[in-house]
């Protein structure tokens, strides 16, 4: 997918036009539903379901935002010229990161609930040799500090990457209500040519650092906020599966955003079946990779048959959670595999968006299954008004931040930015008359 992509002679400065009053009302209603669901859970004494819903929804929507940014980072690292017109749609995920960071802070108010398996041991109230051996890591102040600091660093790097990608294209833009933002972003302007080269150089240096930080820090978040909920259980594949799911979700979310904004902004000339075909191949490929990673984690534990390694799967494969494992596999792997197996469906925007929506629903349920079975001790299946309502509230915040990004910044790069891209073709000098390989 590294085929050449010609640079257009003229690219419009295209931002999303103001959304309708009905759309703004819809976003406000989503947020209010989330607030109402959370308040209702507290008023009715369903504190456990509130804390569970807060955590797994935070994990899903934050993973989605970081996954979109990391998709843009991957496109930059690999010099994916085919994606020049969709890369900034992926960068838009960075707009949710400040909201995500603020929402992380109240998550830790539920620590007594999330970590009740090991907190009494660390405090010396209960004896448990396995957890005592992990006490240096299973330490609540240390856990909170390392996650807040780690997420702050990761989000800071991601926002810096987004800033560098946008800075060359907003200087001197026509005066509108976003002009103060553009002026702050372009302070110390050095000229178009120098700024474009400088931003590209910094992005090229930052991208691999950000990729490594994502794997380490987001994997750490998965370990601390999901795996430690069952402190006797461990899996070296768990953090890998956790950040791979985030990356896959970012690709699927970008496919949906591309489909929605393509017609609304009149980008058919710049986002063609060529981009959809390649984007569809990535959605398809990472559905397979997601299944491969999760199967690799499961089959080794199943084959080893060690009690502590099996308990995590036992909690998820028995009622009431067992049927949802099959639902998740169907949504994330089986349906996209058969639906996107051939070439034609990948080229149809509505079809690709449909399967991407199924994938995101599956990932939302997967985040639910990471958290709730480890903590739920009641009767019935705890997926209802509280969990779905708070999920809709998070959706309202995510969509609001993304729409703000789409309205504030150009969604297509300028010709100058595109002209600064490196070539994916490496020229290898060959001595005349001497065969290659000798």
Overview of this structure, please?
This protein has 438 residues and is mainly alpha-helical. The chain has one domain. It is built from 18 helices and no strands. It has helices at 21-43, 47-77, 87-91, 97-107, 111-114, 119-122, 129-133, 140-170, 179-185, 192-225, 238-264, 273-304, 307-317, 322-339, 343-346, 349-375, 385-408, 415-419. The longest helix has 34 residues, at 192-225. The chain is globular and about 70 Å long. The two termini are 30 Å apart. The relative contact order is 0.18. The model is unreliable at 423-438 (pLDDT under 50).
Explain the layout of strands and helices.
Blueprint: H1 21-43, H2 47-77, H3 87-91, H4 97-107, H5 111-114, H6 119-122, H7 129-133, H8 140-170, H9 179-185, H10 192-225, H11 238-264, H12 273-304, H13 307-317, H14 322-339, H15 343-346, H16 349-375, H17 385-408, H18 415-419
Helix pairs in contact: 1-17, 2-4, 2-8, 2-10, 2-11, 2-16, 2-17, 4-8, 8-10, 10-11, 11-12, 11-16, 12-14, 12-16, 14-16
Keywords:
438 residues; mainly alpha; 18 helices; globular
Q: Could you give a short account of the major beta sheet?
A: none
Give average pLDDT, whole number. Answer: 90
Backbone shape: globular
Helix/strand order, N-terminal first: HHHHHHHHHHHHHHHHHH
Structural class: mainly alpha
- The end-to-end span amounts to 30 Å
Q: What number of structural domains do the residues give?
A: 1
- Spatial extent as radius of gyration: 23 Å
Helix content: 55-70%
Q: Could you give the count of β-strands?
A: 0
Residues in β-strands, percent:
under 5%
The tally of helices reads 18
Low-confidence runs of at least 5 consecutive residues: 423-438
């Amino acid at each position: 997918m590294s085929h050449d992509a010609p640079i257009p002679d003229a690219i419009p400065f295209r931002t999303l036009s103001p959304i309708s009053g009905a759309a703004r009302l819809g976003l406000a209603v989503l947020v209010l539903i989330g607030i109402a669901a959370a308040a209702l859970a507290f008023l009715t004494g369903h504190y456990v379901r509130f804390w569970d819903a807060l955590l797994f929804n935070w994990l899903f929507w934050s993973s989605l935002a970081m996954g979109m940014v990391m998709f843009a980072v991957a496109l930059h690292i690999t010099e994916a010229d085919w994606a020049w017109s969709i890369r900034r749609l992926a960068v838009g995920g960075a707009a949710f990161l400040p909201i995500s960071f603020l929402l992380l802070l109240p998550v830790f108010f539920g620590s007594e609930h999330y970590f009740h398996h090991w907190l009494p041991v660390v405090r010396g109230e209960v004896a448990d040799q396995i957890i005592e051996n992990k006490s240096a890591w299973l330490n609540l102040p240390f856990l909170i500090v390392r996650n807040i600091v780690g997420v702050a660093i990761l989000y800071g790097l991601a926002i810096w990457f987004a800033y560098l990608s946008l800075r060359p294209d907003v200087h001197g833009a026509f005066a509108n209500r976003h002009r103060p933002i553009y002026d702050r972003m372009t302070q110390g302007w050095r000229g178009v040519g120098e700024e474009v080269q400088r931003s590209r150089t910094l992005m090229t240096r930052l991208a691999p650092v950000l990729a490594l930080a994502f794997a380490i820090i987001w994997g750490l978040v998965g370990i601390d906020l999901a795996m430690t909920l069952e402190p006797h259980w461990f899996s070296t594949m768990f953090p890998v599966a956790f950040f791979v799911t985030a990356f896959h979700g970012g690709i699927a979310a970008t496919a949906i955003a591309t489909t929605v904004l393509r017609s609304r902004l009149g980008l058919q000339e710049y986002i063609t079946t060529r981009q959809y075909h390649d984007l569809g191949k990535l959605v398809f490929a990472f559905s397979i990779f997601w299944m491969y990673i999760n199967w690799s984690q499961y089959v080794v534990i199943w084959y080893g048959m060690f009690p502590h390694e099996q308990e995590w799967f036992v909690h998820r494969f028995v009622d009431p959670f067992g049927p949802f494992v099959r639902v998740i596999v169907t949504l994330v792997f089986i349906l996209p595999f058969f639906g996107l197996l051939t070439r034609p469906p990948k080229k149809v925007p509505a079809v690709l968006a449909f399967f991407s929506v199924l994938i995101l629903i599956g990932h939302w349920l997967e985040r639910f299954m990471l958290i709730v079975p480890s903590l739920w001790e009641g009767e019935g299946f705890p997926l209802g008004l509280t969990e779905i309502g708070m999920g809709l509230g998070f959706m309202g915040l995510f969509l609001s931040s993304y729409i703000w990004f789409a309205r504030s910044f150009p969604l297509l790069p300028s010709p100058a930015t595109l002209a600064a891209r490196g070539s994916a073709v490496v020229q290898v000098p060959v001595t005349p008359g001497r065969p290659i390989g000798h």
